[in-house]
Amino acid sequence: MLLRLSSALFASHSRQSLVHNSRSQSRRVAMSTKAKLRGVVFDMDGTLTVPVIDFTAMYKAVLGEEEYKAIRAKNPTGIDILHHIETWSASNQQKAYEIITEFERQGMDRLQIMPGAAELCGFLDSRNIRRGLITRNVKAAVDLFHQRFGLEFTPALSREFRPYKPDPTPLLHICSTWDVLPNEVIMIGDSLKDDVACGKRAGAFTCLLDETGRYNSSDFLAADLQPDYKVSSLVEVNALLEENFELTPLHTHS
Fold first, then answer.
1. What is the DSSP code string of the chain?
2. Of 43, 80, 194, 195, which is the active-site residue?
3. 45 is catalytic
4. For a pLDDT cut of 90, what percent of the chain falls above it?
5. Which residue is catalytic, options 45, 190, 194, 195?
6. Which of 29-43, 115-129, 150-164 has the lowest mean pLDDT?
7. Which of 52, 80, 196, 218 is 20–30 Å from 136 (CA)?
8. Is the pLDDT of residue 44 over 60?
9. Residue 219: its pLDDT value, please?
10. Mean pLDDT, range 86-90, rounded to an integer
């Protein structure tokens, strides 16, 4: 009887050990299969900087009230004003760019860094992870951002680099410059139609910054395009990167 009981206990213990070892091995496999991350590419306006440009007012100033309403109804996830005006005559394009530039100039006067941005950049620097920038704003705004906040993003591609987001070319250019694969990079931005689309088309990971929860609406939840990750603050990104990626430093060339 004692022998049978001891045998049963041994068998039970062995099964538990096997289950424990299996789970431990699964965890080790999961940890070892984390995707490598060698670089982070950011959007600027509304991501690295606090949103200060009234885009709705800008679109209405460029398009007019009625055309704005008509285009907005057809594009509930957002208006791509830069691509829209490309079909206009040269003179009308010039007028539109003057309006856009004035709104952007006013935004530059009120430029503020996004909470958590400096700390996130410090974290990436400490792990030797590259950081780049892609914006549809002008180079002058990028230069001002670099100067005012003492943060450097390389490469930093502005509207002067064509084609611009959501085309994947800017992100693929950065990957080529860094000599990394797109799936070793994550694109972080506050626009589903520009930043997430750019990242997805390039083959990179994507993280949507949604401070206000506006992307929880049915218009966006029904969209085919969805980010790999979503945060409500840049403060959350450090932990997200450490939890989901193997942070792999790039070798710097002397």
1. -HHHHHHHHHHHHHHHHHHHHHHHHHHHHHHHTPEEE-EEEE--BTTTB-----HHHHHHHHH-HHHHHHHHHH-TT---HHHHHTTS-HHHHHHHHHHHHHHHHHHHHT--BPTTHHHHHHHHHHTT-EEEEE-SS-HHHHHHHHHHH----SSEE-TTSSSPTTSSHHHHHHHHHHT--GGGEEEEES-IIIIIHHHHHHT-EEEEE-SS-GGGSHHHHTSS---SEEESSGGGHHHHHHHHEEE-PPPPP-
2. 43
3. yes
4. 65
5. 45
6. 29-43
7. 218
8. yes
9. 73
10. 92
